[in-house]
Design a protein that fits this description.
753 residues; mainly beta; six-stranded mixed sheet; five-stranded mixed sheet; 57 strands; disordered N terminus
Amino acid sequence: MDIKIKIVSLLIVTNLFVIEGFGQVNFTREDAIVVLKANGDTLENPWAGGFNSVQFSEIDLNLDGIKDLFVFDRTGNRISTFINAGTPNQVSYKHDPSYIKNFPKGMHDWVLLRDYNCDGKMDIFTYSTGGMAAYKNTSTSQLSFDIDTSLVYSDFQPDGAPNMINLYISSTDIPAIDDIDGDGDLDVLTFSIIGSYIEYHKNLSMERYGTCDSLDFQLRNKCWGFVRENISDNSVTLYDTCSFNIANPEKNSGGNKHAGSTLFTLDVDSSGSKDLVLGDVSFNNFLLLINGDMSTNLTQSNIIAQDSLFPQNNNSTLAVDIDIFPAGFYLDVNNDNIKDLIAAPNCFNGCEIKNQVWHYNNDNADDNPNFNFVSDEFLQDGMIEIGGGAHPVFFDYNSDGLMDMIVASFGNYDPAVGPLLYESGLWLYENIGTISNPAYQLINTDYVGISSMNLDIAGSRPTLGLAPTFGDLDGDNDLDMMIGDYNGFIHYFTNTAGAGNPASFSLTAPEYLGIDVGANATPMLYDINGDNLVDLIVGKKTGTFSYYRNIGTTSIPNFSLSTDSLGKVSTRRYYDFNGNSNPVFVDSAGTTFLYSGSQNGYLYKFGNIDGNLGGTFSKDSSYLDIWEGINSFISIAEITNDNKLDLLVGNSAGGVAFYKGDTAVTVSVQENSTVANFNIYPNPTNGLIHIDLGENDLKNAEIEVIDLLGKIQKHQKVMNAKFTLNLNSYAQGIYLIKFSNTNGSRVYKVIKE
């Protein structure tokens, strides 16, 4: 009789072997597991999820009076929130994603937090079609926001009858939202839709109502500072005549079509007027524009000088050198009540995104800064951060019984590597903790040396978009490796170490068997049809799953395509360009489920699989509403010895989130009493277990080792009543030892220490 697993209560059940296992699998975000750098230093926020093109704002998230940190990543429109401990003269942020749910959904491209109604609470400005939307901070006992306007308008014809048009801001740009004229309300500087000139939209809230709580804008200058941005470089032409200015606001002449710029303002020389820092889409530096406005009401903006090495000339520090398109943010990050400078890339793709968040301490004053360079990886240095695209997988690489972690990268941008412009590798994090309390340390950033292997046969070069999976393909009781890539191919690596030894991989077959799923191959090795041979299921760019049945033997695999659309399901929504599925199979309480990440970032769960490989699976999209950013990639294992599955989620920002399993159910294994008891010892075991079957019939006898995912780790025929099983290569935890013969089956629990 096969094992029958069903959910039961905690009552003792006659003739049932009771063990904890998994029914409905649930997860809770957890940041407590320690991760160390290669040098042994502890990462402050290892599971924060990485940064790509990030924007920084201050806000009091937990309403304790201390300004915390809000980070918006243009890549995937991802929010990160950090609580500030407020330690004087120190950067003391702790990642806390629990506040993300309090922010409006659907914000995209850029988000800046500013207090526009002077109530001491940071409101939200964010891109809206052709301009910007505004949300009011309505927090009382907890953080909350209400929409103020979905599109902010401005009077574009102040010389005549009002002409209210959306205050244009490009989705590519980041505007300057600041009190430009010093009257207490927030104004806006933004590039014109038609050219290389900066528009000044004055907020008339103070003038008209005597308060700063309105968004009442008027275009006061179509050529703020009387400068024109040059096309050939990111300098500006000073003292432009701007003949098309306000006197004739409808005249669309002058300048060239605007490509993309970032703006932020500060007073660098204590003059009282706002100077402007400009970042450009095609360049790696900041351009500081010095404002010579000395008028009483700051109505005569006039750029008199430019500095392409900002902030090098403010206290002899380093000039910003961010691959392309830098953006600047002026806020106090070290709790000394003086605003500091953070610079980050504002690009979408094709730019360096690792070690590209620059931090300068301001050692003087807000209106006369002295900037000192601190780091080029602000907060990034405290995270698992591998560059572009993180594909994490649990794997016990050294066979010590503790689940290690390999994080494969899609690729880190580096033009120096050649035509690919990206370099992909495997980052190995060893589990140096215990069976119940895992802790990880970075051991190798190019495990197996993948980055220099020419896996792309046609191009005779390395490949990108690595996605590893592990399984015993040659029957030698150690785990071999397959790696998928962005071209859609699979590469086969044999583990020659032997059971119980640290893995030693050698490349057996690049582009194995000519398997090609089109693009973004993400393989998983799993016996899906229950024939005791490991099959190959491959996720791909389209969001569907290809199923290759193993028609070989336990020692010589051979895969044959059964279907390109397993279960007739997909992770691609109808309005998505891609699906980017990545399969993970789990046997939950005796029932097989398929989990997957996706291009849109949500997790998917598919059921109705057992006995239905040719049919249609059921689908649960947005599983548990877990979302860590676009291009999510998942791995599931039990790593804390609590009989609860744990989850890793990688994302396009190059980071990883950890979710701890928070639900364990009691399940029972029904047994046939005609199979006699037998002896297993020692139990617990460090590796070897001895089995004495006594008088049990050996006709059609077999033994299986099953993990708590329901996955058969070992299957063999039984020829003798006394024999030994080697569990040295297995991770620590609980396993089921199932003996079967013609009379039925009996199951025992074994603990591997």
